[in-house]
Amino acid sequence: MARKKALDNKCPNCGGIVLFQPSLKKFKCKYCDGEFSLEEFSKYTNASSVKNNNKEMDETSYDTYTCSDCGAEIVADSETAATFCLYCGNTAILKNKLSGRFAPDYIIPFKKEKKEAIEAFKALSKGRLFVPKDFSNESNIEKIRGIYIPFWLYDVFVNGSIEVDANRVNTWRVGDTVYTKTSYYKLYRTGNMHFFKVPVDGSTHFDNAIMNTIEPFSYEELIPYNHGYLAGFFAEKYDVNEQDAFPDAKTRCLETAKDILYNDCVGFQAKTVAKNNLQTKVESNKYVLLPVWMVNVKYKDKLYLFAMNGQTGEFIGDIPLDKKKVVFYAILLFLVLFFVIILISFVLYWIGRAS
Asked: How far apart (Å, rounded) are the C-alpha atoms in residues 105 and 53?
């Protein structure tokens, strides 16, 4: 029977749980405060060693949490007790084991701490009168979790040509007569282009618009994947494979290449792409995990999302309005203005009588 390995790190000193600390860029023991680099862990036969990180070891076992409502599957270390879904807030979470190949090629470890995500979340409601009182309560703040979002990165080669219909208009005057000459052209542009690390979301549960808002990530900080970095965090299992994800990358590359060639046709008043003969070829693709702090807060049966880039700190926040507060302050403002007008009218009346 194949030996199972849990997705956690054991302290070489005391055997306690060791978690990755973004601010230290090291792993730290919760019990003896020992600090270790990934290189130091590689000397031991625990879950973060190079040997146990081999992608080909199909017997590796992970804890997964499946949402019975939206179907999201997230992976966590064996110490995590997932009680809610990060995507829909549902509390009916089923815990099971994921066996088989899962490890990505690369990962960007978290650089921003949870406290920084909490501060950004709290700042959303500062100075806003109409935010519901319970929106930023402690129970919601505690739900902020770090999650690694699955992405595919493609290196793409584009070559080919475009044909552009263009014209140039010249106008001149002779005496009282105005002459206009329109010249028509067929323009051809060819090119070879390389696009590197074109990202495509590997999750159907994480809104692409959200990721576009908190991007960019600095891909220079990608490092070889080691599941020791997942200790203390979640990671979603991708549900869009590399073949299904590539059309998005292909479209982006073709559109960019077309625009570059099109913009090279200068000095014309009107231009239209008549033929597009550009083609793509995938040179390589990598499966990576990118860090995001996030929480979904349910208010009046609607979900409001907060998400922060775990590398740069860029964030997006959607906050609700408390309609009762809006009505209350509207009535209060009306009453204040009403009494101010009455007071001014009263003062003007007595000033008029006195004069």
From this structure: 11
Cα 147 to its chain centre, rounded Å, is 10
pLDDT band per the 50, 70, 90 thresholds, residue 253: very high
Give me the mean pLDDT over the 267-277 stretch: 92
Preceding peptide of 216 cis, ω within 30°: yes
d(CA 180, CA 168): 10
Residue 333 lies inside a defined structural domain of this protein: yes
Under 8 Å between Cβ of 82 and 94: no
Indicate the pTM of the whole model.
Answer: 0.71
Give the closest residue to 219 by CA, choosing from 120, 152, 145, 294.
152
Residues spanned by the domain of 339: 323-355
pLDDT at 48: 42
Q: Is-contact 90 55, C-beta < 8 A?
A: no
What per-residue confidence (pLDDT) applies to 72?
78
Nearest to 292 by CA among 200, 206, 223: 206
- CB contact at 8 A, 108 and 311: yes
More confident residue, 55 or 348: 348
What is the count of structural domains for the chain?
A: 1
Can you tell me the mean pLDDT for 329-341? 76
pLDDT 10s digits, 17-54: 677 778 777 777 766 777 777 777 666 644 444 444 44
Cα separation, 194 vs 284, in Å, equals 11
Q: Are 270 and 166 in contact (CB under 8 A)?
A: yes
Q: Where are the alpha helices (DSSP H) in the chain?
A: 38-41, 114-123, 138-141, 208-214, 242-263, 323-354
Would you say residue 349 lies in a domain?
Answer: yes
Burial classification of residue 30, based on how many CB atoms lie within 10 Å of its CB (0-12 exposed, 13-18 middle, 19 or more buried): middle
**Token code pair at residue 3:** 């030996």
pLDDT score of 60: 47
Report, in angstroms and rounded to the nearest whole number, the Rg of the chain calculated over CA atoms. 29
Report the Cα 282 to chain-centroid distance in Å. 24
Instruction: Please report whether residue 15 resides in a domain.
Output: no
Is 239 in a helix, a strand, or coil?
coil
Amino acid type, 270: A
Distance CA 302, CA 76 (A): 26
Average pLDDT (155-182) is 93
Residue 340 lies in a domain: yes
Task: Determine how many CB atoms are found less than 10 A away from the CB of residue 132.
Answer: 19
